[in-house]
Amino acid sequence: MDEGSEEPEPEAVPAARRRPPGSLEEEVLGVLHRSGELSPGEVRDLLPATARLSYSAVVTTLTRLHTKGVVTRRRHGRGYVYSAPGDPATLVAWRMNRLLAGQADHRRALTHFIAALSPTDEALVRDLLASAPAPAEHGEHGRGSESRRQG
Question: Residue 38 and residue 13: Cα distance in Å, rounded?
């Protein structure tokens, strides 16, 4: 065989475009925060045209967000309507926690995060930490929600 006729290895062929993990959830949450209570079809219609998602993909995403406690839903006819409680700051906090949860080394990730803060934001974080009630004990990654007393 001559060198020019070899077929590329399978890894060399570009894979189909895929969304980054969690990006669809973020888009759906953004739609809910901007628009209030919506049916899955309404959410689908308000997602960017580039998404071109099936109705079932939107329902699955909304169901997962509901299971995670990020959105609420109520019965409306034969289906549900969904809403994202809180304000845009709640969405930002959820995103930050989701990103941190994806990192094995929380100390390193938080160190880089804090180092990148403006002096004003760093002072704000210090003030918030100083005024927050001290949890009994933190788990391995310092997540207060995991260390709260059960039952």
Answer: 40
User: What global pTM score does this model have?
Assistant: 0.58
Torsion angles phi and psi, residue 66, rounded to 5: -65, -45
pLDDT tens sequence across 88-116: 787 788 778 888 988 899 999 999 999 99
Q: State the Cα–Cα distance between residues 113 and 32, nearest whole angstrom.
A: 28
Q: Where are the beta strands (DSSP E) in the chain?
A: 72-76, 79-83
Nearest 5 degrees, angle CA 18-CA 56-CA 78?
160
* Residue tagged 């995060």 (tokens): 113
Q: In one letter, which amino acid is 128?
A: L
